[in-house]
Write a structure and sequence with these properties.
The chain is of the alpha/beta class. It has one domain: Fe-S hydro-lyase, tartrate dehydratase beta-type, catalytic domain (fumarase, Alpha-Beta Barrel). It contains five helices and seven strands; from the N terminus they run E-H-E-H-E-H-E-H-E-H-E-E. The protein has a five-stranded mixed β-barrel with strand order 2-3-4-5-7.
Length: 173
């Protein structure tokens, strides 16, 4: 199993292959449906984003409320295809990778290839286990969205599978 760290630079992304298992460490951002819509709007309006998308990794999750120890109770992946309409905006701004579950549209697969990005799969139903890999979290933007707000997470050895690689290889095909 390959160990990789963020930021997920293009030279590392090019090495990853569809179906490969990885352990990701570093900074990732939680971005779900409502936050995607807000980010796409900011990009369209040429306004400043709350975090730099260049080589960033976003995670399609809506973490549950924090426990007494300060960490999320659960942070499992959500269905990625719901974000497909907004994904082109983020890829054009240099997004390095996305983490979620399920298939992506052919258009998004082609854009992942064009931008040399990566789509990772996280195991659905394992949110409590995945939350144990989160070592730090902080609200970054859109706090009024509750669980759909953007959080920065620091993760260690977050287990993933390459679902779509930078050459367009797709685990579902």
């Amino acid at each position: 199993m390959r160990k990789i760290t963020t930021p997920l630079i293009k030279s590392v992304r090019k090495q990853l292959k569809c179906g490969e298992e990885v352990l990701l460490s570093g900074t990732i951002y939680t971005v779900r449906d409502a936050a995607h819509k807000k980010l796409a709007h900011l990009i369209t309006e040429k306004k400043r984003l709350p975090f730099d998308l260049k080589d960033a990794v976003i995670y399609y999750t809506g973490p549950t409320p924090k426990r007494e120890d300060g960490f999320f109770g659960s942070c499992g992946p959500t269905t990625s295809s719901r974000m497909d309409g907004f994904t082109p905006f983020l890829l054009r701004k240099g997004l390095g990778a996305m983490i979620g579950k399920g298939r992506r549209t052919a258009r998004v697969r082609d854009l992942i290839k064009k931008h040399k990005a990566i789509y990772f799969l996280a195991v659905g139903g394992a949110g409590a286990y995945l939350a144990k890999r989160v070592k730090f979290s902080k609200l970054v933007a859109f706090g009024h969205l509750g669980p759909e707000a953007v959080y920065v997470l620091r993760v260690k050895n977050f287990p993933l599978v390459v679902g779509i690689d930078s050459r367009g290889g797709d685990i579902y095909r």
